[in-house]
Design a protein that fits this description.
By secondary structure, this protein is of the alpha+beta class. The chain has 6 domains: 62 residues, Orthogonal Bundle (Helix Hairpins), CATH 1.10.287; 225 residues, DNA ligase/mRNA capping enzyme (D-amino Acid Aminotransferase, Chain A, domain 1, 2-Layer Sandwich), CATH 3.30.470.30; 83 residues, OB fold (Dihydrolipoamide Acetyltransferase, E2P), CATH 2.40.50.140; 73 residues, DNA polymerase, domain 1 (Orthogonal Bundle), CATH 1.10.150.20; 84 residues, DNA polymerase, domain 1; 75 residues, 3-Layer(aba) Sandwich (Rossmann fold), CATH 3.40.50.10190. The protein is 36% helix and 20% strand. The protein has a 5-stranded mixed β-sheet, with helices on both faces. Strands 14-13-12-16-17 form a 5-stranded antiparallel β-sheet, with no helix packed on it. Strands 5-4-7-8 form a 4-stranded antiparallel β-sheet. β19 and β20 form a beta hairpin. The protein is globular, with a radius of gyration of 29 Å.
């Protein structure tokens, strides 16, 4: 039976309500009520209905959380009310002086407070109209911030539509943050593709919210805590406003009170002891006068409200001796200096080493050898050196000089323009770089060669059995026999696992090569656009950059890698040993009907999803572009096409075609839903 638009609208409404309820139970209440498979089924049904009836797709649909919008620039938005910073207190006595100031301003006031954990995240302002999320803005300079609405839609516990009865307009403020476990996962992924790790979860959150591709933001697993709401009809007591926020579907930052300052002091000291047990970082407690009408009377200074203060926890610190600096070489050759310390107890563990990040940090700290330093552990995975104590520095100490040669292979180090890190350019023969690339090559998401961990790879490297990826496929049980620590059947098992990996498809082989900036998603996009390694080799940097979501930085990295003679010889050797370096099911790129032509899609098409249309273009040899430019060959125009794109295409003389024109060029129709 054919589904009518009316029936589809009713089913879409039902699915959105169901999925939003499950999101609320999972992300806010932590009480999931259905298995993941059932949730995925509901989401898939909703996505299919929206693709079939694009006019019924809503802004509050859960499908909008996956992102996909590309934002070249973030518009600047004036805040309706300034997002002021807070004055800080570092001792209980400073907190008591805060209360004395309030009483001098309002001598007859009966002061009660609420206290909230101070999340170490990124402050944002959310705007809701008729319960629908319509805009999200960063704090910026407090007066104006950047519009990051598309990126905030991807935050899974941020309501796209408020629950229950809500005022016509609501402003909600809070912190976007990242769980420590997700931060560690993100840094591991970045290291796998050769990108430098983030320093801490807050740094990672801030960087994520400014990404131009919201689909990439969606992968960062960001979360949101609410701590403020402004709307007509809200109660005077702020603790009651927190209850409204919860009823609307927000996860609210942990709140204590209303109570006296003495009770608040107990809350502060309690969480100072327990903060490391939380799954996210806090750096203190915010104390606010509970009465909102009293807040108005107390007012604000130019920089901060008088009625609130942040009690900042001092990161746990220790004084110790710095006796040496060692330099680690990563898979991509970047040199990371590490402080070698006299062991000292810090945050319940014995600390012997601390990260120094790069030589610029060494200069900033004015480090000498030997030296006396203060180290701290505050939300960092690795302790860091905070500052030196020059007054305790030994008289014979000398300033630390930048490393000039790689500590592993002796090659002269280089520093790229605009970057703070130094790197070893001998990436083909520097042992830690070679072993790191081999470790990436055999990893689960790449070639998935089991039994070959870092220790075994190092043994094989030291015995001269492997130097390149293709060397792995030349191993035999005889070559592996007699290696210390190998069980009797280990050589045969390793060889079998290596040979089995020849069935791994082309996109994963491309990822396994370890090209800088090429992660799993990028490798998949490249493989879709260029269906063989030769096609990718023959493409220009500009053609690679035109692939949807790729851009010039990745394009330059890919082009340089493939056009290095030694790298290409290794790729040819990988082909000879049997790896998949093309899509077997597809024709050669130069024989396809859209070969070499650049396309962009604007608008919607009945019964055809955007992803299906992009795949259709790429499968037939076309390159999907990231925007309208003079290099674009065709703009495929559908219903409600973007006026700005159409105007720019007209000015540049880009040919605009319909979906039927495109199908005529290919010679077969695109698949309908």
């Amino acid at each position: 039976m054919e589904l009518t638009p009316e029936a589809a609208a009713a089913r879409i409404e039902q699915l959105i309500r169901e999925i939003q309820e499950h999101d609320y139970r999972y992300y806010v209440l932590a009480q999931p009520s259905i298995p993941d498979s059932e949730y995925d089924r509901l989401l898939a049904e909703l996505r299919k209905l929206e693709e079939r009836f694009p006019a019924l797709r809503r802004l509050d649909s859960p499908t909008q959380r996956v992102g996909g919008a590309i934002t070249k620039e973030f518009p600047v938005v004036l805040h309706r009310h300034p997002m002021l910073s807070l004055d800080n207190a570092y001792t209980i006595e400073e907190l008591r002086e805060f209360e004395r100031r309030l009483l001098r301003l309002q001598p007859d006031a009966v002061l009660t407070y609420i206290a909230q954990l101070k999340i170490d995240g990124v402050a944002v302002s959310l705007h809701y109209e008729e319960g629908l999320f319509v805009q999200g803005v960063t704090r910026g300079d407090g007066v104006q911030g950047d519009d990051i609405t598309n990126n905030l839609r991807t935050v899974r516990n941020l309501p796209l539509r408020l629950r229950g009865t809500v005022p016509a307009y609501v402003e909600v403020r809070g912190e976007v943050y990242m769980l420590r476990s997700d931060f560690e996962h993100l840094n591991k992924e970045r290291e796998e593709i050769g990108d430098p790790p983030f320093m801490n979860p807050r740094n990672a959150t801030a960087g994520s919210l400014k990404l131009q591709d919201s689909s990439e933001v969606a992968k960062r697993r960001l979360r949101f805590f609410a701590y403020f709401a402004e709307a007509q009809g809200l109660p005077d007591a702020d603790d009651e406003v927190m209850q409204y926020l919860r009823s609307w579907g927000f996860e609210v930052v942990q709140t204590h009170g209303p109570s006296s300052l003495t009770e608040i002091e107990g809350f502060i000291l309690q969480w100072e002891k327990q903060k490391d047990a939380l799954p996210y970082d806090i750096d203190g407690v915010v104390i606010k006068v509970n009465s909102r009408s009293l807040r108005t009377k107390l007012g604000s200074t130019a920089k901060a409200p008088r009625w609130a203060i942040a009690y900042k926890y001092q990161p746990e610190q220790a004084v110790t001796e710095l006796y040496s600096i060692t330099y680690q070489v990563g898979r991509t050759g970047y040199i990371t200096p590490v402080a070698e310390l006299q062991p000292v107890r810090l945050a319940g563990t014995k600390v012997k080493r601390a990260s120094l990040y790069n030589y610029d940090e060494i200069q900033r700290l004015n480090l000498h050898l030997p030296d006396v330093v203060i180290v701290e552990k505050s939300g960092e995975i690795i302790p860091k050196v905070v500052r030196t104590l020059p007054e305790r520095r030994p008289p014979h100490a000398q300033p630390v000089k930048p490393p000039s040669h790689c500590p592993e292979c002796g090659a002269s180090l280089l520093q790229a323009p605009g970057e703070v890190g130094r790197y070893c350019p001998n990436y083909k023969h520097c042992p830690p770089q070679v072993i790191g690339r081999l470790e990436h090559f055999v990893s689960r998401k790449a070639m998935n060669i089991q039994s070959l961990g870092e220790k075994i790879l190092r043994k094989l490297y030291q015995r001269g059995l492997i130097r390149t990826f293709s060397d792995l496929y030349k191993l035999t049980p005889e070559k592996l026999s007699g290696i210390e620590g190998f069980a009797e059947k280990m050589p045969q098992k390793i060889v079998q696992n290596v040979q089995s990996s020849k069935a791994v498809p082309y996109p994963r082989v491309l990822y396994a090569l370890g090209i800088r900036h090429v992660g799993e998603a990028v490798a998949q996009k490249l493989a879709e656009a260029f269906t063989s390694i030769e096609a990718l080799y023959n493409a220009t940097e500009a053609e690679i950059a035109q692939v949807y979501t790729i851009g010039p930085i990745i394009a330059q990295s890919v082009y340089s890698y493939l056009h290095d003679e030694e790298n290409w010889r290794e790729i040819e050797e990988l082909r000879r040993v049997g790896l998949q370096l093309s899509h077997k099911s597809l024709m050669r790129l130069d024989n396809l009907p859209l070969s070499g032509k650049r396309f962009l899609v604007s608008g919607t098409f009945p019964s055809v999803s955007r992803d299906t249309l992009i795949s259709y273009i790429q499968e037939n040899g076309g390159i999907y572009a990231s925007g309208v430019s003079k290099n674009l060959d065709y703009l495929v125009v559908g219903e409600d096409a973007g006026p700005a794109k159409l105007e720019k295409a007209r000015k540049l003389g880009v040919r605009m075609i319909s979906l039927s024109d495109l199908e005529a060029m290919v010679g077969r129709p695109v698949q309908r839903l």
